[in-house]
TrEMBL record:
<keyword id="KW-0282">Flagellum</keyword>
<feature type="transmembrane region" description="Helical">
    <location>
        <begin position="97"/>
        <end position="123"/>
    </location>
</feature>
<dbReference type="GO" id="GO:0009306">
    <property type="term" value="P:protein secretion"/>
</dbReference>
<dbReference type="InterPro" id="IPR006136">
    <property type="entry name" value="FlhB"/>
</dbReference>
<keyword id="KW-0812">Transmembrane</keyword>
<feature type="region of interest" description="Disordered">
    <location>
        <begin position="1"/>
        <end position="28"/>
    </location>
</feature>
<keyword id="KW-1133">Transmembrane helix</keyword>
<dbReference type="InterPro" id="IPR029025">
    <property type="entry name" value="T3SS_substrate_exporter_C"/>
</dbReference>
<keyword id="KW-0966">Cell projection</keyword>
<dbReference type="GO" id="GO:0005886">
    <property type="term" value="C:plasma membrane"/>
</dbReference>
<keyword id="KW-1003">Cell membrane</keyword>
<comment type="similarity">
    <text>Belongs to the type III secretion exporter family.</text>
</comment>
<feature type="compositionally biased region" description="Basic and acidic residues">
    <location>
        <begin position="7"/>
        <end position="28"/>
    </location>
</feature>
<comment type="function">
    <text>Required for formation of the rod structure in the basal body of the flagellar apparatus. Together with FliI and FliH, may constitute the export apparatus of flagellin.</text>
</comment>
<feature type="transmembrane region" description="Helical">
    <location>
        <begin position="34"/>
        <end position="55"/>
    </location>
</feature>
<dbReference type="InterPro" id="IPR006135">
    <property type="entry name" value="T3SS_substrate_exporter"/>
</dbReference>
<keyword id="KW-1006">Bacterial flagellum protein export</keyword>
């Protein structure tokens, strides 16, 4: 019972397939604090950059509105001209500012987890309509984490605001003693820097929240050992299916190998248990190579095909065993067997010439062929 319980614990890291399935469902690591901090910092920096232009635009608008002549006041078309000035002065600065915030908001939310679009994420689910599930979300671990984050954010921002006010307290008091318009520019400068520093305090929360979200995401996707085994079976196939596939692959490879037997120069046999088909083609290889080999039933089939196509069969037991155990298909015979194979091929070539009436009958192949001890089997 204990073993069964331990096997159900989510102790295994998520597989690549599990991660891919989670991404398809829209389940990726996200940090809302990262997006919020990025937008606030971008707004603060953007305000410091576009603030002077906006201030000048507002100044020109106020000048246009507050310095109207008496005739313009009673002219209904003057209002349209004022709105035209407002649009021309504020449209470009505001659009650039809003556009920058939109880009930063988009990038800030995809930095962690990447770009992900899933229709499954916003499909209606019955479980979301269940009141009990709603209570679990409200009073569960995730809700406690969010509450802790909210208290932490409030505490950090409140402490940062207190420290900033304490640091700039004397400068704020001196604003009333300055003269226009210097005190206005000084106040705006203080406001911008306090805004930037206050938004920068969010980076502390981001530095804690991003690693937590990555850890929490990986924890939620962890798998039990049984889930890993089941996924492996689904991915790789059941053992009996894989065995059948391997058998079919072997049969296909064997059929391909048998189709090469008629092209062999000689079949070296043992004489019943081993059969090796050897070919020598100078356009393909500098040394003889093996195009088919087998033992027992496969060897019998090789000999049978060789007889049908009148391929020479030579009995050389030590050489047949040595080639079979040391050489793979389409591979050259080892250097240590060159002499022995050369003797066999020379015998076969001379035998062909004799059968055509063009030469003498070749001498039998030596019984003690030169085979190194390390290649004997």
């Amino acid at each position: 019972m204990a073993d069964n319980d331990s096997s159900q614990e989510r102790t295994e890291e998520a597989t690549s397939r599990r991660l891919e399935q989670a991404r398809e469902k829209g389940q990726v690591a996200r940090s809302k604090e990262l997006g919020t901090a990025a937008v606030l910092l971008a707004a603060a920096v953007g305000f410091s950059m576009t603030g002077p232009a906006l201030a000048q635009s507002l100044s020109r608008i106020m000048t246009q509105v507050l310095t109207m002549e008496r005739a313009q006041i009673f002219d209904t078309n003057s209002m349209y001209r004022v709105w035209g000035v407002v649009g021309s002065e504020l449209t470009l600065p505001m659009l650039s500012f809003i556009g920058m915030l939109a880009v930063v908001a988009f990038l800030g939310n995809i930095v962690l987890g990447g770009l992900s679009f899933s229709t499954k994420a916003f499909m209606p689910k019955g479980s979301k309509m269940n009141p009990m599930n709603g209570f679990k979300r409200m009073f569960g671990t995730q809700a406690l984490v969010e509450l802790t984050k909210g208290i932490a954010k409030f505490s950090v921002i409140a402490l940062s605001a207190y420290l900033l006010l304490s640091f700039y307290f004397n400068d704020l008091l001196m604003l009333s003693a300055d003269h226009l318009p210097g005190n206005v520019y000084h106040a705006l400068d203080l406001l911008v820097w306090m805004f930037i520093l206050l938004c920068s305090s969010m980076l502390l929360i981001v530095a804690i929240d991003v690693p937590f979200q990555i850890w929490n995401h990986n924890k939620q996707l962890k798998m039990t050992k049984q889930e890993v085994k089941d996924e492996y079976k689904d991915t790789e196939g059941k053992p009996e299916v894989k065995g059948r596939i391997r058998q079919m692959q072997r049969e296909m490879a064997q059929r391909k190998m048998m189709s090469e037997v008629p092209n062999a120069d000689v079949i070296v046999v043992n004489p019943e248990h081993y059969a090796v088909a050897v070919k020598y083609d100078v356009t393909r290889s500098a040394a003889p190579f093996v195009i088919a080999k087998g033992v027992d039933e496969v060897a019998f089939k090789i000999r049978e095909i060789a007889r049908e196509h009148k391929v020479a069969i030579v009995s050389a037991p030590p050489l047949a065993r040595a080639i079979y155990h040391t050489t793979k298909l389409d591979q050259q015979v080892p250097e240590g067997l060159f002499t022995a194979v050369a003797q066999v091929l020379a015998y076969v070539f001379q035998l062909r010439q004799y059968q055509k009436g063009r030469g003498r009958k070749p001498l039998p192949i030596p019984l003690n062929q030169p085979i190194p001890d390390e290649l004997k089997h």
